[in-house]
Amino acid sequence: MDVELRKSRNGVLKFLLKDVTPAFANSIRRTILQGVPTMAIDEVEVEKNDSVMSDEILAHRLGQTPLVTPEGYLLPSECDCLEGRCPNCSVDLSLQVEGPSVIRGEDLDPSDPEASPVEGNSPIVRLGEGQKLEFNAIARLGFGEDHANWQPAIVSYKYMSVIDIDQDARDDWGECVESCPEDILAIKNDEMVVTDIEKCTMCEACLEACPDAIDVGEDSSQFIFRVESTGTMPPERLVSRAIEILKGKCEEFTEQMERF
């Protein structure tokens, strides 16, 4: 297995994963989406709500507000408190405000400043003159497989494309080059070449334009990953945690098999 970094900027990680099976690549994707514990608002206790937004919709919007996930917190199922409300496994985010104003993520007051909303400017609800909103929200660690609130990123991958060109098939490559919407085909020394194979989307436009000279396929042992974090944790940390979790599951499976 080999990993080559392609991009790491503004919460987006792009890398090339080589010499692995499709099943292994998909295991990484699924673990990032569903198996890495992250912090999200799980419970909202509303004391007063004069806004036009109902308590249920307000709670849903708060749950969908990404929070930074600090290190050191326990899953509620692992905590001795058994209620999921102690400082070891939860964070309180309170609010008490009167309108007119637009309530934003930065207005929430977390018991742990490190577990604050990722985007402080993100709007939650608008309050009119004299309207009041008071609530206490409880954030806990959870998994994306249980609810989308805890999904930490958008993760996708694609096979590495393979474009075979028969250089003896024709003398004029203009039509073939112009057909590519990604502009990755070019003419060099009277031959057509691929300038950046990783940008190929396998749309097969070039194949339709020049079926006599081009064949488009895929390499199922190489995968181009793209991980876009919600901001709850850096994408590099997400991938590392996913690998650790997969390794732990494999070790546990091996131990269980050795008992037979």
TrEMBL record:
One of its GO terms (cellular component) is DNA-directed RNA polymerase complex. PROSITE patterns: 4FE4S_FER_1 (PS00198), 4FE4S_FER_2 (PS51379). The keyword DNA damage does not apply. Its cofactor is [3Fe-4S] cluster. Residues 161-190, 191-219 form the 4Fe-4S ferredoxin-type domain. Binds 1 [3Fe-4S] cluster. GO terms for biological process: DNA-templated transcription. Its main location: cytoplasm. SUPFAM superfamilies: Insert subdomain of RNA polymerase alpha subunit (SSF56553), RBP11-like subunits of RNA polymerase (SSF55257). [3Fe-4S] cluster binds at C200, C203, C206. HAMAP family: RNApol_arch_Rpo3. Part of the RNA polymerase complex. Belongs to the archaeal Rpo3/eukaryotic RPB3 RNA polymerase subunit family. This is DNA-directed RNA polymerase subunit Rpo3. It comes from candidate division MSBL1 archaeon SCGC-AAA382C18. The lineage of its organism: Archaea, Methanobacteriati, Methanobacteriota, candidate division MSBL1.
